[in-house]
């Protein structure tokens, strides 16, 4: 299917100011979309209130509105510019929420503006957890047990059925604001109340904890001819319980069996078709129980996301750019891959290296803040590194973070110098280090090194951290080599 | 021990050992630490063994098809896939991972640098490790190296690519930190020399320069120990601003009003040492602050714009809202700012971007600091005035002049529309952290509001930031003693005129009453119920104005701040912001906002 000829002008909604959970990845996707759609000859109209972005450069769009991203202001722009369509999938949750509001209030109908990239029904089905869970159940895919509640009383009833620990997720908040994990009734009450307050519709999801399960993401694209491609698989180094944005992530997935991976791929294809994202990319998250292999679907984002930016950089496949082209009617087999020129975008990327992303936090700026990582994202940035092996990419990513570290320790900045500890002190320190790792914290990776230096086994560390033994094995190899290297010390 | 003996055991290292360590990702810095030697010794030894990285291509297809887009990463393996061209090339160093104080603004500058150099026919090479950015889109530059921004990794690429030079002044503090070391290793730094950057950062030398140029500056000193800090502070006179040297984003910066506070700060906040001194400045209380972004080609200076901060001195410039053009400055002072900026650019031999921060108190303009590099406000100013400053700067760095770029005579006074920048904070993610603004930057992002009038720009900026101002209802006000002044009275009178009712804490209510202004009195949090927090939670207050009182009422302010945030009630902590909110609300009550594109605004400037 070639480019649609009934479209002349396109309104792109940006993501607004940088906040935790919605950062410059949307400048990347928006800039790509502006560039490619302009090249295709469309009149591009853009709204974004964030002046620091590249997408708001006057050269990138035909009309650039630095105005508040609210339904009222977008309506004024629609009234003035009369775009044929709106592309709401490039500007994160902000853009999607604004588009939904405009569709529901009848503004889009009034001006005859069509949503492209994702239709209203698809957005709602992906975003509304109840509809999403029903859709998954219909296809025989499992989701976590739980229910939506609107009051503390309801929440208490649901909690009885599920048992602790329980995850609390407020609806329609950015990066899971106001969510958390409760281990006891007192925590549960306070987190539900906080969650109800943060949700714009006072709704909270109370859910079975899948803490400690392995977490994966697939970046998926689909076109109008129903071609589906999986761009990239991403594995979280940190198990479920830590927000993906706060997790170390690795691409491609490292610890799935081929069978598990194929099951996940099949599920992803079914999901994107069922939800009905026809022209664009989606991010689908899965959890796998390491003890029995049970796989559940966590959620789906029917738009480009932080993970799709990562997947684009990890594979060289420009998801946002291709998504913008799909939105205006092209199909995957019609779009050339601009890296190879020979292959079309319907070729799934292949990776012969390893990519590691590590988040960066700025807790020292916020006195008294709890730096334990959880289901609410707290990081403000991230670094990615590419290497031939996980070990190489992992150490490169650590020194990319620019927090004064030059790899996995051994850089003069370690707070525990295991090599100078007297032998008899080691068991006590080992216990301290293992205890410290029970809660996920930003500097836990350095404690993994201390633990192995202090003689912990992979099993011991896995038992506490639930990090997959394959990752731990690799980290232990780094620590062991470090020890060998000391033989050459001057 | 002689140097040769010290390296003796290192002689046993074989190429195989070295290679394995590198393949496991060990950096030269780590190996230097493990082997108890310097990074330079490790580097020299590694190169002697021929253990140097090769660059592989990210090609989407595991080398099954030929790749055309040069997107590379280093590894220790066979066969280099990154072919060096024979074109004139420049490496631009990116900003690395985002953090508070160094974010997307610097990516904007880097990408603009790239666009400009492409126009100049120069091959552009980007090094960066942040996957969220436009600069790491392989489409942006001629060549992309997805690599850490450490000396080791950057030097390796410089050695492979042999660029005519490297641009370090666009990516924030990250590239600047390694600029000197790069230069020492024979890499040409484009634009302002590391020497010029250093001169601006070195207090003693910079102070001497300001004296020579006869530019006023607040008294300052440098402390190398805890005891010495108090002496320096007394000498300067209180209040003082104390902070560690060489940081971006105002990390661990504080305002101290007496020696006890200085001692306390020195004890808890910093490890002060001769290498890491603490900087102490006279703090100009209640001064107005201004920021200037300019480009110099060594001969001429283009002043992009003068921004006036809305919050008074003492609040980090990254957290303060600001406005172009300035609204409370005399023509004489504006001329002074312009003249000082030109003088400084020339004295520091700036080639490229320059940011100068000024304070104005009692009609005197003081220079606070000069940064000969891209600042956080470059994209905001560029969009306000319709000139791409970073692009112009990049062209100047490779030899163009402002004159031949046709921007030598740009007059920032031609800009008539009002642009406001407002900061956005992550407080809702961090329950119960202090919410008052200070010299330490904590905002994660910003928005811009543009309008033909001040009130409209303020209202739009607030809406963009998600703090929609109320147009009716009740305002809670509680101000500290030094704010019980004419400004507060005027603000309250304006709110009454706009039809709001006022509720205040006892002290503030008494002050208002003494000046004939009626208000309802409400309990502070610990005075009884219902108190102000109850009212906020009940939706009976639409705007909170609370200027901080300090230690003794911290609990109250905490509770009020958090009640406001959780209930999405606008929360204002300075009188100047309250005064501008009045203007915004005034405008909002008329409604009928219009939208106008940047292209339309910019066309009007040229006309």
Written description of the protein model:
- The complex is a heterodimer of chains A (490) and B (607).
- By secondary structure, chain A is an alpha+beta fold.
- Chain A contains 16 helices and 16 strands.
- In chain A, α5 (120-127) crosses α6 and α15 (458-465) packs across α16.
- The radius of gyration of chain A is 23 Å and the shape is globular.
- The mean pLDDT of chain A is 94.
- Chain B has 607 residues and is of the alpha/beta class.
- Chain B folds into five domains: 3-49; 54-190, Rossmann fold; 219-282, ATP-grasp fold, A domain (Dna Ligase, domain 1, 2-Layer Sandwich); 288-415, D-amino Acid Aminotransferase, Chain A, domain 1 (2-Layer Sandwich), CATH 3.30.470.20; 469-588, Rossmann fold (3-Layer(aba) Sandwich).
- In chain B, 36% of the residues lie in helices and 19% in strands.
- Chain B has 21 helices and 22 strands.
- A seven-stranded antiparallel beta sheet of chain B has the order 15-14-11-12-13-16-17.
- In chain B, α15 packs across α20.
- The longest helix of chain B is centred in the middle third of the chain and has 17 residues, at 331-347.
- Chain B is globular and about 85 Å long.
- The termini of chain B are far apart.
- The relative contact order of chain B is 0.08.
- Classes of the chains: A alpha+beta (490), B alpha/beta (607).
- At the A-B interface, α1, β3, α2, α8 and α10 of A face α2, α3, β2, α5 and α13 of B.
């Amino acid at each position: 299917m070639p480019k649609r000829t009934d479209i002349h002008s396109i309104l792109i909604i940006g993501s607004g100011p940088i906040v935790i959970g919605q950062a410059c990845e949307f400048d990347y996707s928006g800039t790509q979309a502006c560039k490619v759609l302009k090249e295709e000859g469309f009149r591009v109209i853009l709204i974004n209130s964030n002046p620091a972005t590249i997408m708001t450069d006057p050269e990138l769009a035909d009309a650039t509105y630095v105005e508040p991203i609210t339904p009222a202001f977008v309506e004024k722009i629609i009234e003035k510019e009369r775009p044929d369509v709106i592309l709401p999938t490039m500007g994160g949750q902000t853009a999607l929420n604004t588009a939904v509001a405009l569709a529901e209030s009848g503004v889009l109908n009034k001006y005859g503006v069509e949503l492209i990239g994702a239709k209203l029904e698809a957005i709602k089905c992906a975003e509304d957890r109840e509809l999403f869970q029903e859709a998954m159940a219909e296809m025989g895919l499992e989701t976590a047990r739980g229910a939506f509640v609107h009051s503390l009383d309801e929440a208490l009833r649901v909690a009885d059925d599920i048992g602790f620990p329980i995850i609390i997720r407020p609806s329609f908040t950015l990066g899971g604001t106001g969510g958390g994990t409760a281990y006891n009734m007192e925590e549960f009450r306070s987190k539900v109340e906080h969650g109800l307050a943060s949700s714009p519709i006072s709704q909270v999801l109370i859910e079975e904890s899948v803490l400690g399960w392995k977490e994966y993401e697939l970046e998926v694209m689909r076109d109008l001819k129903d071609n589906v491609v999986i761009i990239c698989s991403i594995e979280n180094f940190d198990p479920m319980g830590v927000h993906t944005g706060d997790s170390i992530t690795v691409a491609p997935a490292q610890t799935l069996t081929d069978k598990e991976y194929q099951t996940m791929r099949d599920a992803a294809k079914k999901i994107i078709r069922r939800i009905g994202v026809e022209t664009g990319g989606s991010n689908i998250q899965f959890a796998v129980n390491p003890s029995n292999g049970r796989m559940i679907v966590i959620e789906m984002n029917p738009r480009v996301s932080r993970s799709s930016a990562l997947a684009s950089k990890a594979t060289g496949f420009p998801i946002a750019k291709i998504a913008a082209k799909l939105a205006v009617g092209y199909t995957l087999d019609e779009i050339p891959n601009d890296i190879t020129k020979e292959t079309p975008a319907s070729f799934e990327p292949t990776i012969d290296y390893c990519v590691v992303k590590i988040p960066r936090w700025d807790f020292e700026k916020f006195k008294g803040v709890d730096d334990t990582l959880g289901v609410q994202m707290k990081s403000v940035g991230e670094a990615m590194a590419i290497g031939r092996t996980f070990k190489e990419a992992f150490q490169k990513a650590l020194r990319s973070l620019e927090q004064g570290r030059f790899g996995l320790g051994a850089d003069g900045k370690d707070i525990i110098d295991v090599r100078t500890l007297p032998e008899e002190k080691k068991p006590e320190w080992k216990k301290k280090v293992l205890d410290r790792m029970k809660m996920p914290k930003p500097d836990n990776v350095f404690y993994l090194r201390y633990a192995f230096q202090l003689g912990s086994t992979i099993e011991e560390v896995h038992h506490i951290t639930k990090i997959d033994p394959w990752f731990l094995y690799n980290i232990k190899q780094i620590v062991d080599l470090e020890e060998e290297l000391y033989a050459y010390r001057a | 021990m002689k140097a040769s003996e010290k390296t003796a055991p290192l002689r046993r290292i074989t190429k195989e050992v070295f290679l394995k360590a590198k393949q496991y990702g060990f950096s030269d810095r780590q190996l230097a630490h493990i082997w108890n030697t310097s990074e330079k010794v490790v580097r020299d030894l590694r190169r002697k063994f021929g253990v140097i990285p090769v660059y592989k291509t990210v090609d989407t297809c595991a080398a099954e098809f030929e790749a055309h887009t040069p997107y590379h990463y280093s590894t220790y393996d066979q066969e280099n896939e990154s072919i060096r061209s024979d074109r004139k090339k420049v490496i631009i160093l990116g900003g690395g991972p985002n953090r508070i104080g160094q974010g997307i603004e610097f990516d904007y500058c880097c990408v603009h640098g790239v666009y400009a150099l492409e126009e100049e026919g120069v091959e552009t090479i980007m090094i960066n490790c942040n996957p969220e950015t436009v600069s790491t889109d392989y489409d942006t530059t001629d060549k992309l190296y997805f690599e850490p921004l450490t000396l080791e990794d950057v030097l390796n690429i410089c050695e492979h690519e042999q660029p005519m030079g490297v641009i370090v002044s666009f990516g924030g503090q990250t590239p600047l930190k390694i600029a000197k070391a790069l230069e020492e290793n024979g890499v040409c730094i484009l634009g302002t020399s590391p020497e010029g950057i250093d001169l601006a950062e070195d207090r003693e030398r910079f102070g001497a320069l300001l004296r020579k140029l006869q530019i006023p500056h607040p008294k300052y000193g440098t402390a190398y120990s805890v005891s010495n800090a108090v002496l320096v502070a007394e000498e300067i006179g209180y209040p003082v601003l104390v902070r560690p040297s060489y940081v971006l984003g105002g990390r661990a910066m504080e305002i101290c009003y007496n020696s006890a506070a200085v001692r306390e700060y020195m004890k808890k906040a910093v490890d002060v040492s001769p290498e890491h001194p603490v900087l102490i400045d006279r703090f100009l209380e209640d001064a107005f602050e201004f920021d200037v972004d300019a480009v110099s080609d060594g001969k001429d200076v283009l002043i992009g714009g003068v921004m006036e901060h809305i919050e008074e001195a003492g609040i980090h410039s990254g957290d303060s809202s600001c406005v172009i053009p300035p609204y409370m400055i005399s023509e004489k002072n504006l001329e002074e700012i312009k003249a000082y900026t030109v003088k400084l650019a020339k004295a520091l031999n700036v080639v490229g971007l320059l940011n100068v921060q000024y304070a104005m108190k009692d009609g005197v303009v003081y220079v606070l600091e000069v940064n000969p590099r891209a600042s956080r406000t470059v994209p905001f100013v560029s969009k306000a005035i319709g000139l791409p400053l970073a692009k112009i700067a990049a062209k100047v760095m490779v030899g163009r002049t402002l004159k031949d770029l046709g921007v030598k005579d740009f007059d920032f006074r031609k800009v008539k529309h009002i642009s406001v920048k407002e900061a956005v904070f992550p407080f809702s993610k961090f329950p119960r952290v202090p919410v008052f603004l200070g010299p330490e930057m904590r905002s994660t992002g910003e928005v811009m509001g543009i309008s033909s009038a001040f009130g409209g720009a303020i209202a739009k900026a607030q809406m963009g930031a998600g703090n929609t101002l109320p147009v009716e209802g009740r305002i809670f006000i509680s101000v500290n003693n030094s704010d019980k002044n004419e400004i507060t009275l005027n603000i309250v009178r304006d709110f009454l005129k706009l039809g709001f009712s006022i509720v205040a804490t006892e002290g503030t209510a008494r002050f208002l009453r003494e000046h004939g202004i009626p208000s309802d009195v409400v309990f502070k949090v610990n005075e009884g119920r219902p108190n102000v927090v109850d009212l906020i939670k009940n939706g009976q207050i639409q705007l909170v104005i609370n200027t901080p009182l300090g230690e003794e009422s911290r609990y109250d302010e905490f509770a009020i701040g958090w009640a406001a945030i959780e209930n999405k009630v606008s929360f204002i902590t300075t009188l100047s912001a309250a005064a501008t909110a009045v203007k915004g609300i005034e405008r909002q009550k008329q409604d009928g906002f219009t939208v106008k594109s940047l292209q339309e605004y910019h066309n009007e400037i040229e006309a």
